[in-house]
Design a protein that fits this description.
single chain; alpha/beta; 8-stranded parallel β-barrel; two-stranded antiparallel ribbon; 14 helices; 12% strand; globular
Amino acid sequence: MIRLPQAGGGVREYVPRAEPLAVPPGGALTSRTVFSAAHVVADPYADTTPDSPAAVDWDATLAFRRHLWAHGLGVAEAMDTAQRGMGLDWAGAAELIRRSAAEAKAVGGRIACGVGTDQLTGPVDLLTVRQAYEEQLALVEETGSQAILMASRALAAAASGPEDYLDLYGHLLRQASEPVVLHWLGPMFDPALEGYWGSSDLDAATETFLEVISAHPDKVDGIKVSLLDARREVELRRRLPAGVRCYTGDDFHYPELIAGDEQGFSHALLGIFDPLAPLAAEAVRTLDTGDVAGFRKILDPTVELSRHLFAAPTRFYKTGVVLLAWLAGHQDHFTMVGGLQSARSLPHLARAYELADGLGLFPDPALAEARMRSLLTVHGVPR
């Protein structure tokens, strides 16, 4: 029995499960293309401050990527889950991309890497934004990785309307050597992206987004949509040109979106698949056999955990992701770059532990319990 603090005050007793849900690594997934946006592991011994460059434990960070590849998932590298713009600067992201791309080649893992403009500071013009994108795109392509064109805070600030997005993205797509993934990240993940694609009206923004894609369908492998709006994603994917995929980024509705309907389905590029990797892989392998009901039976129970981790303010979901990686034994500490281990309350973390334990996500439940007890002790929770 372990005493877990509650949001309303006080503690309650919880009995952890004794056995994990054993899911062995497996081969490639066939019916869906599935990426996990992976977190970075901080170096807990580095003498840093929240304002200093991130200190990364490269061995543990790359080991976690090997864990994802072993289960058949692709790695979406240097994305929001890796704390870009929230502790990890462009220099750190560039090093992460280089190291992960080399590791992917060594083990035969699939990788796609984020291309943004986070080397910029302060107000800039559109030409400077374009040059920043070009610098990052060149680095990703040099490593042999697929590029994911991420939404840009600098572009959101510099653009005066839809025409600026059409012009800049058109230039980048013409320049890309291989088809890219376009990433639409909503303001719930990053408030600085409000009004992306030239309008705060999502219907108008969608039209601009589709215009970018339709002008260059041969250069767009797919789109990643992170708006937490299942209806809008379904409507959008039905309007995509033939051959352009929709990668769901909806951490609230992913089972139904991946399962799809009679008119199509979404692939996946999800932050929640970082902690859910074994279950996510097992679910998609079940779907590979055509067993949609079996897929939903495995994945539907995980949604409560995902909705908890991604609760508002959504941008701090990374704290719960790293907590679960520590409890699962993928890293030896609960430390994050930028000190973001403090971004969620103790009751929030306790509930994350309880939900993950209930799903059998911890390979060693006793280790997870012991580590959770140590965290509770530090915070003064009585045994």
